[in-house]
UniProtKB/TrEMBL annotation:
Cofactor dependence: FAD
PANTHER family referenced in this protein's UniProt entry, alphabetically: METHYLENETETRAHYDROFOLATE REDUCTASE (PTHR45754), METHYLENETETRAHYDROFOLATE REDUCTASE (NADPH) (PTHR45754:SF3)
EC nos: 1.5.1.54
Protein's recorded name: Methylenetetrahydrofolate reductase
Pfam families to which the protein is assigned, alphabetical: MTHFR (PF02219)
Associated pathway: Amino-acid biosynthesis; L-methionine biosynthesis via de novo pathway; One-carbon metabolism; tetrahydrofolate interconversion
Entry keyword set: Amino-acid biosynthesis, FAD, Flavoprotein, Methionine biosynthesis, NAD, Oxidoreductase
Family from the record: Belongs to the methylenetetrahydrofolate reductase family.
Flavoprotein listed as a keyword: yes
EC category name: oxidoreductase
NCBIfam families found in the cross-reference section: fadh2
Sequence intervals crossing the membrane: none
């Protein structure tokens, strides 16, 4: 089922969350154990992130360092199929430009289509950590909008080999939005121009980067609407669970954490207290967003169920 169909058919705010594939070598049972406690709240879909390869340095016998390209969290496509099979819930794989040629993307989308997956979240992907800036593959896409165009083409039966008599796919397409601006964009207006482009090319819905101040989301939604972006905008939320995240999250995701939350976390005496403050903050955010009438509340679970479960218990 398409995410947009769930939204159309529901009068209430829906529940969904995102998980990461396990680190290479870990079992899928661990992941199932993390998902299981959240199934009670009837998520309509579960997103599965995609992780590109990274460079790691291994010491050779002669003492020299050797650089290897390794994907630390493979398995996105397999996990989506396993989740759908095990939990009977829709899985939404993330697909990224980074590390893929157009041909590889086409083949991956064919796999997803054969597996009965109806939704994809289309992203550019992050830069390889040691590279700093995003470098597309020689025959790959530089922007999410280009990858989106490829999916839209396939939805029309138009594959890379235009002479091919191909059957059309039918993916519902999500894209990312940034209430606090994507860090590379010179300003929010320019960022929104490209978000509008994604809608114009055929995106069906938006999922936002995490934010800790609902006002940022409300302002973002009204600016989007002013620009003619009419598709659903699903807020993404992450509960703070450790004190270290006060500095890590802004560094990785280029977002602000409100002073009130920072002070509350800093005044905690134990890690358990920090977690409770983070969960309570996310509950308040969730309740206010439901009142605002958001279509879905989407949680970044980091494949840990405990915090999201406590939030869902209070909210759904
Ligand atoms: P784009 O839409 O391509 O935008 C990137 C930048 O280029 C922006 O500054 C934009 O303003 C600008 N831009 C966009 N289009 C154009 C254009 N046509 N011409 C010029 N400039 C343009 N990363 C992963 O690696 N794996 C994941 O699974 C993953 N999941 C995510 C899920 C969500 C909900 C979000 C919000 C992010 C996720 N990310 C993931 C991170 C994401 O890949 C990064 O934030 C990335 O830097 C940008 O991705 P994008 O799709 O927003 O890029």
């Amino acid at each position: 089922t398409k995410v947009t169909q769930y939204i159309r058919e529901s009068k209430e705010t829906l529940f969904s969350f995102e998980i990461l594939p396990p680190l290479k070598g870990e079992s899928i049972q661990q992941l199932f154990k993390a998902i299981e406690p959240l199934m009670e709240f009837k998520p309509k879909f579960i997103d599965v992130t995609y992780h590109r390869e990274e460079y790691v340095y291994k010491k050779r016998e002669n003492g020299l360092l050797e650089r290897q390209r390794i994907r630390k969290r493979p398995g996105t496509v397999g996990i989506c199929a396993a989740i759908m099979n095990h939990f009977k819930v829709d899985a939404v794989p993330h697909i990224i430009c980074g590390g893929f040629s157009k041909e590889e993307t086409e083949n991956a989308l064919i796999d997803l289509h054969f597996l009965g997956i109806d939704n994809v979240l289309v992203l550019r992907g992050d830069a390889i950590k040691s590279e700093g800036t995003f470098i597309p593959e020689p025959d790959g896409h530089a922007y999410a909008s280009e990858l989106l165009q490829q999916v839209v083409n396939m939805n029309k039966g138009k594959y890379l080999d235009e002479g091919l008599q191909a059957s059309a796919t039918d993916f519902c397409i999500g894209v990312a939005g940034y209430p606090e601006k994507h860090f590379e964009a010179p300003n929010l207006q320019t960022d929104l121009k490209y978000l509008k482009l994604k809608q114009d090319l055929g995106a069906d819905y938006i999922v936002t980067q995490m934010f800790f101040d609902n006002q940022k989301y409300f302002d973002f939604v009204s600016k989007c609407r002013e620009m003619g972006i009419t598709i659903p905008i699903i807020p993404g939320l992450k509960p703070i669970t450790t004190q270290k995240q006060l500095t890590i999250l802004p560094a990785i995701f280029h977002i602000d954490i409100p002073d009130e939350l920072v002070k509350a976390v800093e005044s905690c005496k134990t890690p358990e207290q920090v977690k409770q403050v983070g969960i309570e903050w996310a509950i308040q955010q969730s309740k206010e967003l439901i009142q605002f009438g958001v279509p879905v509340l989407h949680y970044y679970s980091m494949s840990k169920s405990d915090a999201v479960r406590q939030i869902a218990e209070a909210v759904f």
